[in-house]
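During the no-cost extension, the postdoctoral fellow (Dr. R.K.) reprocessed legacy sequence entries with the updated structure-token encoder. One reprocessed record is reproduced below for audit purposes.
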Amino acid sequence: MQSDYPLLITLGTLIVLAPIIRSLLERIGVPALVGYIGLGFAVSAMDNLWSFITPASESVFSAMAQLGIVALLFRVGLKSHTSALLAKLPDASIIWIGDVLANLAIGYLVSRYVLALPLETSLVIAAAFSATSVAVSVAVWDEANKLGTSRGQLLVDVAELDDLSGVLILAVLLAIIPALQEGGSQLLPLAGATALTVLTKLFLFIAGCYLFAHFLEEKFTRLSHRLEGTATALTITILGVGLAIASVAGYLGFSLAIGALFAGLAFSRDPKAVHTDSGFVYFYEFLTPFFFIHIGMQMDTGALFTSFGTGALLFLAAVLGKFAGVAGPALLSLGRNDAILLGISMIPRAEIALVIMYQCLQFGEDIVPARIFTGMVLVSLATSIFSPIVLRHMLGGAPPR
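Re-encoded structure tokens follow.
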């Protein structure tokens, strides 16, 4: 029992520091995830000095990080709506498709032919490049009171579609990497067959979520509310069901992130369930920081300085990919200034990009080397800081005080 005290002290310290750091960073307009990752890196650096993180402690941090992923993606799904997402396709689809394809291509080409990385590693980076952090830029638009404009709504539409496609790409990626690792002359047929299998399972999983959402969810939510009597109890129950659905996705060979997203979407069409988001926010704010903290803990302190060159190159590619992939197609329907504004707004890579990198760490050093993982975390930090600075200048806003 006494050996648990360092873990409990560490957890308690992080729980206290997380909201303080979030408040301080938000005052200067910096996303909270920057501070959370910094906290995790500090824990890792101190562990190198005093070795207080045991294998058992690491398992606890890993479990907390997984719960953080579930909370993060469940809320993304809960705040979305399948009908709304489908309604966005006509206006946002050209920009969204151009964005995803351009960033998949640029991420892959730079990784494979400039950094000379293996095929599997290049695919992981390309998948992470395709994602966008909806929260980072939306906060700046909201500060400038321009989120409700047609341009602001288009930003939200494209970014939400990016989140969804990023998670779906992750599902395929997690399935085909083991096939690619086997290699051999049957590489392409094997990878193709594996992708077909995972897409079939994914279709069946989504179909199950759809049936639950349309035929069981409302009855379940009403019964739970009647039996439990309080909004807090209902929130806990819905979160428990979301975790169970996410675990089913994990059992099928996907990730908890994929299951949590579709669990959130399954509840998103019910106003009573969506109303629980005000109560769910406490779980979200408690659990989500641990995902980013664990990301920081996975950064190799020894590889930090050697990762700057890789990170800088990937940062430039990430900026170019989003700007060209979004602003180019946007010129078909928007003026030049609005297309540029939208392109810069889509540059941040944070939540989903880090989920992709984190989930692919399970394949080991051969697929996600320490230098590459640390470099991509630096890209996430840099894009999440760079884009808001430029946006505030263009939108005429200022960081909250």
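The two ends are 44 Å apart (CA to CA). The chain has one domain: 2-395. The remaining legacy entries will be reprocessed before the final report is submitted.
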